[in-house]
Amino acid sequence: MNTDRTFADRRSAWIRVDDQAIRDNVSSITAWLRPSRCLAVVKANGYGHGLLTASKAALAGGAESLGVALPEEGVALRKAGVNAPILVLGASLPDAADTLIEFDLAQTVTDRGMLDALNRSAKQQRKVAAVHLKTDTGMGRVGAPPSGMSSLLEHARALPCIRVDALSTHIGWEDDDRIDSQVEAFRRIVASTGCRAHATNSLVALRSAPSHFDTTRIGLLLYGVVPQPLFDARLPIPKSLKLRPALSMEARITQLRNASPGQTVSYGGTFTVDRPSRLGILPVGYADGYPRGLSNRGHVLVRGRPCPVRGSVCMDQAVIDLTDCPDARLGDTITLVGISESESITINDLARAAGTIPHDILAGLGSRLPRVATPP
């Protein structure tokens, strides 16, 4: 007997990941970006889709390189056999230099101390350290001041075991004027260096073609999710971009119960039943990444019909109102994210209802829910 298959058939909640959707999305994105190259951002467990799954699909779709937040993510990819260029986007401490060199990870650098540490380690390992020098053009987070970039680049180029692959910045604004201001500030820094450059996230890439430079960092769009400001404003994306969501989330009803008017539901009694009701229990909660902010605000799809979340979303469970879906049965599969018949719930829908952004929803998807492939 195939016990793994038996368990899989009986799972109570899961996340489906369509790696073909990621491949197709990246293929569309790379065509749209040309001649700029696509750096696929796969940090935070591939935005909840799975680090290795997202990385392999992005590379198969035409991404030139991968972006992670931490050296540990890059090491995991190398150990899994990924040989493509990998850039650590976050700042790392000098004591990570040996690991960065050993696993051929490019590092974002903002100061001389890190350059010196990488140079020493690379010399000891008889390698060359790839670096991307980062400046802060207005984000107010990671980066050397623009006035110091010339001397930082000069110092890097003087070190025998350092190779400067690019200059970078990060644009943290949503309005066009501030985006344009940061792009222009960065362009002035890059202009006289002869270096490759990258500056964007998905939102900025959509809003500002001049921000693409030689390389364009793309995260959210890889997974078929549009930036929340565009979703909320109902603004279209370029027609040439053919994207579809790569992730769905499903669970089975594990308990049915009747509730009378006046009865309260879940922690704190934040919902009071106002009619004879039929409630369903789902084995999914905020530990799985189904946000507590959806308490009394979210809904799920049962046989294509929306059913509201009642009461507080718990760590491991949520309660839904099935009163208007009388044919629902114990063990039925319901949709928390995805398509059910003619209805759908997107990551953007969840983000709007929970008062957050899609990155927060995706990055918060817990590891205990198995990721399963979408059937071909």
Structure overview:
The protein is α/β, with parallel strands linked by helices. The protein folds into 2 domains: 19-223, TIM Barrel, CATH 3.20.20.10; 247-373, Beta Barrel (Lyase, Ornithine Decarboxylase, Chain A, domain 1), CATH 2.40.37.10. It has helices at 3-9, 19-33, 43-47, 51-61, 71-79, 97-102, 112-125, 149-158, 176-191, 202-207, 228-232, 347-354, 358-363; strands at 13-17, 37-41, 65-68, 86-88, 106-109, 129-134, 162-168, 197-198, 215-218, 247-252, 255-259, 264-265, 271-272, 277-282, 299-302, 305-310, 318-321, 333-340, 343-345, 371-373. Residues 1-8 have low confidence and may be disordered.
In short:
This protein is of the alpha/beta class. The chain has 13 helices and 20 strands.
| Number of individual domains | 2
- Distance between the ends: 25 Å
Described by strand count, sense and barrel closure, the largest sheet is: 8 strands, parallel
Shape: elongated
Give the tally of β-strands. 20
Percent of residues in beta strands? 15-25%
Could you please say which CATH topology of the largest domain applies here? TIM Barrel
